[in-house]
Amino acid sequence: xxxxxxxxxxxxxxxxxxxxxxxGGGIGSAIGITSISxxxxxxxxxxxxxxxxxxxxxxMPGTQGIYGFITALLVFIFFGFFGGEAExxxxxxxxxFYSCLPVTFLCLVSGIYQGATAVGAAxxxxxRDEDAGKALIFPxxxxxxxxxxxxxxxxMLLFVQG
Length: 162
Fold this sequence. Notes:
With about 160 residues, this protein is an all-alpha fold. The protein has one domain: lithium bound rotor ring of v- atpase (Four Helix Bundle (Hemerythrin (Met), subunit A), Up-down Bundle), CATH 1.20.120.610. It is built from five helices and no strands. The chain has helices spanning about 10-45, 50-60, 65-80, 90-125, 130-160. Helix 1 packs antiparallel against helix 3 (about 65-80) and helix 3 (about 65-80) packs parallel to helix 5 (about 130-160). It is elongated and about 60 Å long. It starts with 9 loop residues before the first helix and ends with a helix. The mean pLDDT is about 95.
């Protein structure tokens, strides 16, 4: 049995996958939240009453970081990292790493684009605050693909777990 692939053990591959998922989702969320928060700040500076209407738009890109965190946590739970009984062959660890890639990449990109979409939606709220509910739909459409990536990652992790 091959205990090392490209110089890394199974546990190291699994750790790397978990780290990438948390980092990718976190970066996407941070950039997305920054984009919309810059716009939301300007809107609220002009009309403080709109804070509650733009806050959900500013928070939405944060979910990608949550999905990355959930993925990392599931890796640790599914494969026994917390109890100290973690044992993975290099091939299993590599499969865990691959399983983390959908969340890693899609949440990185969707967090950024959800923030950009929320900027446009915030402009809609700035002009017509009665359309705040409609404005949420546009960044929510981007969210759909982040959710899909989380589902695919969880299914892949369950398959590796056996």
